[in-house]
Every structure is written in C-alpha cells, then in structure tokens.
Amino acid sequence: MNTETTHQPDPVRRKRTDEIVDAIKESIISENLLPGDRLPQEKDLITRYAAGKGTVREALKSLEVQGLIRTKTGPGGGAFIDSMTESRAMSLLSNYLFTRQLSISNIYALRKALEPLVAVSAIGNIDAKGFEQLHQLIAVYDHEPADEAERWDQRMAELDFHGVVASYSDNVLLAFICHFLQRLLKDLAVCKDIYQRPEPVERNVGIHYQYRLIDAMRRQDAAAVQQIMTEHMQHAEDAMLGLEATLEERFLSDRPE
C-alpha cells in the first residue's frame, strides 16, 4: 500500500499591491463613487487595508496608470476618481498592439463577425438624429474628392458612418470593440498609405450597401440588417486588400534595379 503523500503545488500568491488595487476598485463600485469624488486619505487606506505606506502608494500609482484615478498635490489634494474616456482606453490598447504585426485581414476578420451584430443591436435605439447623422456622413463621400485633403476626410467619414451605428448599440462591450477596430483602420500605417493614394475607390457600391442598411434599420428588419452588413464588410475587406496589393506593386516597381 502506497502511503506516500502527494503534495499539491501551493497556489501562486498575489502581490499585496494587486490585492489592494482590486479592493479599491470594488469599493469604488460598492460606494457608488463617481468621477471627481475623492478616495479616502492615504493614512485611512493604510489603516483600512493594513498595509504599509509604500504598498498603498504603489497601488494608487497603478490605479493612476490605468486611468481610474488622478492624484493632486497640495492643499485639497489627494486621489480622485477619474473618468476613463473611450479614447484613452483605446490608446492603451493601441500601445499593446504597437509592436505586433497587425494586418488589414486581422482587423476585418473581427469586423466581418462583429459589425453585423452591432448594427442589429442598434436597431431599437437609433433615432431620427442618428439616421440624419448617417445621411450627413454619406454626403461627405458621395462624390469624387477635389484634393488630397478631401480624399482623406472622405475615408475617415466612411469609418465614422460605422462609428455612429455602433454608438447606438445596447451592448457597450460590442460597441467599444467595433469603435476600436474602426480606430485601428484610421491609425494603421498601411491603411494611412492606402487612404492617401489617388487610386479610385468604388464608393458607389459601399454607399449602396449603406442606404440599404439605413432602410433596413428603419424597418427594424434584423435579418436584413445582418445580411447587408455582412456583405458590406466583405466588400470593404476585398476593396482594402485590393488597394493594399496595388500599393505593394507600386512600391516594388519604384525600387531601383
């Protein structure tokens, strides 16, 4: 009979700083603290969490780096709840992806899956003002650009169309991800190169999809909205990849022998 005892590995102990960070986050929610509200003073946090001054300060610094609080020195100073804007959150995510090999295909793999879902989720919320915004954006790019500046503005407006649709979603996470993907297409170096090229864009096809989408959303036809957006995203990916290939061909042909 084997009497040897099998010892399970000890669980990895979390840093005390991380535990305090999570505890402060939970207190922000449980106490319903809002942007501008002050956290307890440092000495009170030390007492509440039975931690040293250095550990509490490290936890507060971590929360500040995350954009959840801001600190102010001097009279009336302390740690205050900050409002994490969508733009700042996206900047943090963009920094994470900065050294990764991100491609147009990577982005559209997600857009093709999520843009139809976010459009369907917006059906019950989008109002007359939202539909007016969509029509105003189409008016920005429903004609040939007069110069490079207008060409750039048109490409940004095309992405903003989808940003407006996502802003009416009742799924905050889905809307955020779609907004982030749209921002990546604005910021990705290869996309910027594509948007600045003078090659003609098949804008009429995309605009046709968008008018159909608006009509289906007005009718609250979820199946039609999903189908139209799925086709629209596939067409958009094909167009971008085609322009990317043209850009690469130009680059190769311009290289010295």
Distance between the termini: 79 Å
Poorly predicted segments: none
Sketch the topology as an H/E string, one letter per element.
HHHEEHHHHHHHH
Beta content comes to under 5%
InterPro entries: GntR_C, TF_FadR/GntR_C, Tscrpt_reg_HTH_GntR, WH-like_DNA-bd_sf, WH_DNA-bd_sf
Pfam families: FCD (PF07729), GntR (PF00392)
Protein name: GntR family transcriptional regulator
Keywords: DNA-binding, Transcription, Transcription regulation
Structure description:
This protein has 257 residues and is mainly alpha-helical. The chain is 68% helix and 3% strand. The protein contains eleven helices and two strands, in the order αααββαααααααα. The protein has helices at residues 16-30, 42-49, 53-65, 86-97, 104-122, 128-141, 148-167, 172-187, 189-196, 203-218, 222-254; strands at residues 69-72, 78-81. Strands 1-2 form a two-stranded antiparallel sheet. The longest helix is centred in the last third of the chain and has 33 residues, at 222-254. It is elongated. The model has no long low-confidence stretch (mean pLDDT 88).
State the gist of this model.
With 257 residues, the protein is mainly α. The protein is built from eleven helices and two strands; from the N terminus they run αααββαααααααα. The protein has a two-stranded antiparallel sheet.
Give the key terms.
DNA-binding, transcription regulation, mainly alpha, TF_FadR/GntR_C, 68% helix, Tscrpt_reg_HTH_GntR, two-stranded antiparallel ribbon, 257 residues, 11 helices, WH_DNA-bd_sf, single chain
Topology:
Elements: H1 16-30, H2 42-49, H3 53-65, E1 69-72, E2 78-81, H4 86-97, H5 104-122, H6 128-141, H7 148-167, H8 172-187, H9 189-196, H10 203-218, H11 222-254
Keywords: DNA-binding, Transcription, Transcription regulation
Protein name: GntR family transcriptional regulator
Domain HTH gntR-type: 14-84
